[in-house]
Amino acid sequence: MNEKVVGNVRLALLVLSGAVGFVLLIACANVACLLLARAAMRASETAVRVALGASRWRIVRQLLTESLLLSVGGAAVGILLAVWGWIG
């Protein structure tokens, strides 16, 4: 059954899957670099918060919340684009 579904385009499907995986890897690396750049720009803000008495847990919680909101927003946009591409 697998041979009937895939047929003689197996190599093309494998190459396409590899290309998609590579693009996703590049996108993940870009997001990681953006988050690192953002954290580097906020180093002085974090130092001020520590100097004013904020605990490490509070700072970590703030950064995790911010990252979570960015992740959820990106996932929502990605899902909307996927649905739009599937329907359209």
Q: Can you tag this structure with a few keywords?
A:
4 helices; mainly alpha; 88 residues; elongated
Short synopsis of the structure:
The chain has 88 residues and is mainly α. 89% of the residues lie in helices and 0% in strands.
What string, H for helix and E for strand, traces the elements in order? HHHH
Instruction: Kindly provide the radius of gyration, computed on alpha-carbon positions and rounded to a whole number of angstroms.
Output: 21 Å
What is the number of beta strands? 0
Helical/strand content category: mainly alpha
Helix content: over 70%
Contiguous runs where pLDDT drops below 50 for at least 5 residues: none
Shape descriptor reads elongated
Can you walk through the features of this model?
With 88 residues, the protein is mainly α. It is built from four helices and no strands. The protein has helices at residues 2-6, 10-41, 43-51, 56-87. The longest helix is centred in the N-terminal third of the chain and has 32 residues, at 10-41. The chain is elongated and about 65 Å long. The mean pLDDT is 88.
